[in-house]
## 1
Amino acid sequence: MQRQLFILLFVTFLPSCKPTTVDTPIGGNGTVKPSTETIVIIGSSTAAGWGASDYKYSWAGRLTQQLSNSRVVNLAKGGYTSYQLLPTKSSHPNNRPDADTLRNINAALKEKPTTLIISNSSNDAVAGYNVDEIIDNFNMIRSRALAAGVGTVIITTPIPRKFNAEVTTKLLLQRDLVMKSYGSFAVNIYDPLATSENLVKPELLSEDGIHPNDKGHEVIFKIISSFLL
């Protein structure tokens, strides 16, 4: 009788014994890494892959291949400045371009990103915009992303460009302010590409004389991926 009672109690207890699932946090803040992350890139031509012999050799293309468990959405477009990336219907001077609703921060947020990468190369400086307005635009885009719940917003520096002394001065100032303003969420892709004359190193420059080649994109990829992997 006692043996039968023990068996009955054991069978009754067994269904309630379920394995415990323990999430492994990343870093020391106790946050749990989701099984699939969505990374959205907004920006200009280098982020869009210009200069690489094939998109898969661009820094964004390499990132897509490396992060096989993540979804990478690239909305960058050649020729774009920070103004095209602003929130839809943002106020701006009349001589500045409107936001592109297909490629701006609003479009990026529709993809539900866990990480946003903002990467504008040099078009703002070439267009004659002052660096303060560039940083103001970055701040507006970043604030909108954080308010929408994006966990990580990464902003890259510009890259060197052969144009004129005024543009070079602006690009250097933009580099410095991006690094100062965004701290650990700023990515310096200027210095690893630059010569002492603030031009892209010849071995990293594509035939168009503006954008990085495959090797240059690989340099950028390694820097950005180190922030994500």
## 2
Amino acid sequence: MLAAMGILSLACAGIGLVPVLMAKPLDRVVSTLSGTEQVLPSLDNLVNLSWLTVLAIPLLVVGFILWKWAAATPRGKEQPTWGCGYLAPNARMQYTASSFADGLVQGMGWVLWPKIQGGRVRGFFPFPRRFQSHVPDPVLDRVADPGLNGAAFLLSGLRFLQAGHMSIYLMYILLTLLVLLIWMVV
């Protein structure tokens, strides 16, 4: 699988570096597909493809030199992504989704109705406090769950229809088919 991808990538690089080689075959494909002799001007007439080759080769050399230079520079010691300059961060110093979304939750509090437990930290030397906030899903918790629970309560009154006898189920199906046939005829 890698060999096939390598061949295709070399073909793409070759076409990019020496596009003159592909101009005539592409012109023949265009004339064959159009059904007439050369409807569009030749690629050679549109762009000077030899100049693209002259420009591509030095750019390729410069790119190779930059790649080698970047690979040779020593890398610094890896640091954690969200260290933020702290020497010894711990779990209590982490940013949470609540801290990022706090402004949005406060601004949309009239719709989201956040549940907050604990108080805000106040003063210069505050005592340790616990703070917890939770934003319930407005659609699921306020619309879908109560609606589905209500439907389940109402439909629980129809459980007597499920007596567990196969003959009664067949009678339900037969009556449904009969009603549908009458409805189609009328």
## 3
Amino acid sequence: MKIKETIFQKVAVLSLRGKLMGPPATTKLYDDIVNLIENGVTRIVLDFKHLNWINSLGMGSIVKSYSVVQKANGHIHLVGLGEKVRSVFVMSQLTKVFTIHDSVEDAVEELNKL
């Protein structure tokens, strides 16, 4: 899996490409988010537009990342959940936990208002 980081004002957008199915991808995602927090960035958008699949290990890393961001008084919003990825979030009922947007622009706009 590849992660591309882009900063829009106070918001980091992490665009994920490939599959999030365990180490090293899950470790890299978590480490990238911890690095953002350490650098004062606590508003994060995870863009799943090019994420092909996520399994329970991938979901675990998302939840772990969410937890560390919450402890830093930050926010994680999600974007671009394709049908397969969305089904995993629906089955795990995490659609009730995360704010999900239709576009990166919508997510960034909302997070910049916080």
